[in-house]
Amino acid sequence: MCRWMAWLGQPARIDELLFKTEHGIVDQSLHARMGAEPTNGDGFGLGWYGTGEGPGVYRSVAPAWADANLRELAAHIESPLFLAHVRAAIGSPVQQTNCHPFRRGRWLFVHNGYIADFHLLRRDLMLAVDRELFANVQGSTDTEVVFHLALTLGLEDDPIAALEQTVGLIEATAHRRGVADPVQASFGVSDGTTLWAVRYATTGRPRSLFASADVDAVRCLHPDNPRFQRLSPDDRLIVSEPFSDLPGVWQEIPAGTAVTVHRGGVLEHQPFRPQPAGSAVTAPDLTGALDA
Amino acid sequence: MCRWMAWLGQPARIDELLFKTEHGIVDQSLHARMGAEPTNGDGFGLGWYGTGEGPGVYRSVAPAWADANLRELAAHIESPLFLAHVRAAIGSPVQQTNCHPFRRGRWLFVHNGYIADFHLLRRDLMLAVDRELFANVQGSTDTEVVFHLALTLGLEDDPIAALEQTVGLIEATAHRRGVADPVQASFGVSDGTTLWAVRYATTGRPRSLFASADVDAVRCLHPDNPRFQRLSPDDRLIVSEPFSDLPGVWQEIPAGTAVTVHRGGVLEHQPFRPQPAGSAVTAPDLTGALDA
Amino acid sequence: MCRWMAWLGQPARIDELLFKTEHGIVDQSLHARMGAEPTNGDGFGLGWYGTGEGPGVYRSVAPAWADANLRELAAHIESPLFLAHVRAAIGSPVQQTNCHPFRRGRWLFVHNGYIADFHLLRRDLMLAVDRELFANVQGSTDTEVVFHLALTLGLEDDPIAALEQTVGLIEATAHRRGVADPVQASFGVSDGTTLWAVRYATTGRPRSLFASADVDAVRCLHPDNPRFQRLSPDDRLIVSEPFSDLPGVWQEIPAGTAVTVHRGGVLEHQPFRPQPAGSAVTAPDLTGALDA
Amino acid sequence: MCRWMAWLGQPARIDELLFKTEHGIVDQSLHARMGAEPTNGDGFGLGWYGTGEGPGVYRSVAPAWADANLRELAAHIESPLFLAHVRAAIGSPVQQTNCHPFRRGRWLFVHNGYIADFHLLRRDLMLAVDRELFANVQGSTDTEVVFHLALTLGLEDDPIAALEQTVGLIEATAHRRGVADPVQASFGVSDGTTLWAVRYATTGRPRSLFASADVDAVRCLHPDNPRFQRLSPDDRLIVSEPFSDLPGVWQEIPAGTAVTVHRGGVLEHQPFRPQPAGSAVTAPDLTGALDA
Known about the structure:
Chain A is 30% helix and 27% strand. Chain A is α+β, with helices and mostly antiparallel strands. A seven-stranded antiparallel β-sheet of chain A has the order 3-2-4-1-10-9-11. A six-stranded antiparallel β-sheet of chain A has the order 5-6-7-8-12-13.
């Protein structure tokens, strides 16, 4: 289990949302409430857009709650768009290359959930990764492979469609290998301008996922909260679990749904429907995998 | 032995000076030329002024040449004033709290050199640290104690005078304990506006220290270097050893000298003359120890 | 809050007690039941007696549950006497020099608890550490200072008496500085032959501490447990919290009590009564500070 | 570039050979003489046979010269057969899963050298790894893939023959992909009883590799060296570069040679001749790879 959050809005100092928020993501590293485990102490990652080309990524194997450098960076970096992730490892080693977010060019990717029996599927899935991208896989998580599959299947053109194909490919592979209920996921993706999030499970209830409500609604509900008065209509948060218990601030993203957050705070919903892997893209690779 | 560098000038992306410069500080972590050892692989530190209150500090026990996070930060943070330090430990553990720069409030401090037989002097020197500051010493280096002594002796009012008193106090203590040639040092200090540097040894040749020459001189000498053409008259570098071998770019800071770099690139020299610890300053503190 | 355990008995492979025991110390790093917090993820330490001179010490900043090296060592080292500790930091940095056990010569020391307002007392307490030992303090925990005070006050001659003086000194210092309820502690000490443990708080209920019962009693209560049948009369465990919930296996060590475990499994109780610091011991030291 | 060493002989405390030997492997982490670079500071690994099932493995990202835990383990573990490795990364991240030795069951594997343009070959080579072994590859080094190829090709039955097939497979793959001079290597392998070492390069001079001479010869040459008098006829060392400059102590292993060290100190030489990959084992996989 893991927890993640994403901010798209006015430039914000990162510690405002990581440390100075009630039950923020760093608090969730020690005291998550909605996950399988309260502790997410197997590494941290932050990807932010701002100064410099493409996103910066800071990844650490120290638990978020105890990482002195994270406090420093969060207090001294401002960004209009960033993703943060706290990790609870399931089997794979605690190392920086297994920490989210994963990056390619301008793109960032985070994941809360798992591919069931990943060790049984890893080879087939790696084989379906584009030949040019294969050598970029540096760690051993399921998430990094999911990201590279999605890149292979067009993430940079249409993130939601690519993730629908990716999940479809994983489910088909799992079916072939006799693995049940393979995908449990909330995904977060960004290119530095737009933010996408998906909540999906092959079977049953997927990992929790929430979006912040319209700022107007939030302000009306809590007129005395100075923090909320500073929010602008541009600001949106996507989070694995709510930062506070205030009513009306958070809206659950339904299971089987993808959301798109545009600049200006516009939030769009659409169904998330995994697609069988299209023959045009993956057939040659998959044939090879099957023959083997 | 260690190596450090400081930049005061136009806002610069940090990797321009850490990674993209010939024989920059990160290269010096592996291939220093003027130190006792070529390798400075026992940790790295960066302190920078910019977004947020006071300086940010990133310290890592990974060798600078192999620290993925350092590359990320350097490529995505811009600053008009920063100090970087690569460490070669002499006895004390490799841990973040032993990495430079040390910080208090707006102040940063780096050091290349040593206090001889520090284990024989540590208690006496710690005792001379202001009672209020004592508990802030988190690591076990000589440098952190030197910094807290200088804070005790007025660093925030007059850095050079405070360092003269600090070195005087260390030399007097060493004399009392039978330790010869106690101080070998180049110091770097900043408050976010001004930069100070000191080159001094009790006996013999102190650690190397250089300042970049006037920008006009540099440009005239190397009219075809596009990099130098981007420099403004405001820009100054202070470095343990020159980044490149180009003639006329670097001027050695003489032994027994303190320099002050003001905004606008103005560089002032003055002699550095250790002062015997004034009774007015340290006697009450010691008395305090007894009264307590 | 922290958790610790100690084994004195037949040579045992360390993983038998760290990993293969229900609710062992590594499980307690993630799921402690009797502490202020369930998570003890701020570092791990193991000190063991066996091959080589004096005890070996392995200390890691990785959470115990995720440290691959710890699993390796535990599976490949056998020892008749070892102490293990999982840390939950309260303020001081997560670094190896802040991990328990602390060592001097043949002696090991672990602590669960705290010195209240340690930052207010640190200077006074450091001053009371023997001049020769002062420079050995490498980290910034209260425990390391307690250990060096106890060494100053005769730990190597009489551990319980030295700890009574140490706690007395801390309580007197706290009183002078206006700090209430200064000591909360369970201590573990060994010299490689004998094991000592103390449970004490200045006020209120001290940290939990348990000893394993006589082997005969344990076996009678659980005749079908093959694990317990392998225990010999020589074997004793001291633990912050019981490894399992089996009735009769664990006996609580009463508050204000010190126990001594001798080879052969003999367990002796005695009251633990802090002693006001004797003038003979500490006065000269303070005078020495002045004379110096 | 990396450096490694292996010991097979009387049970030895590991620090005798890691720390107490002139120019031992830890010294080589900072001051290698025969490699492309003097510094091997990108991680350390030790695999040893002794207590417990199979070999224990300790791997650390700290430079060997500064790793406090390594000193502890080396001073408190005794073993009749161990391999140690200091790493200089060429591109792949500094993480424990990229440190040598690699292990499967009773087998350990170390490597000094490289597969040229590994990123171009990684996918093909991974594809040739046995399907059951694929998911065990946890890091991103060429060496880990070489080890898993050798396991696929029969390392556990005949290590030298398997490595000949492995190198043949790599060379054939490189040829197909247009990569010249693909293999530069000294390999070390053990199953806990026997030790194998290979020195080979596709073209040119391979990495240096030495074996210690017969003990009788060593003793005769240096009759006054008490250290050598303690050696028994059972003792053999294989090293990337000699520990000392004493004449007659070290014999260079010729290029294109494999050596086998049996218990009792017997050292056998044989030519190392890469074999084209046998169709029986790898054809189906390679077909898949090719089609892709």
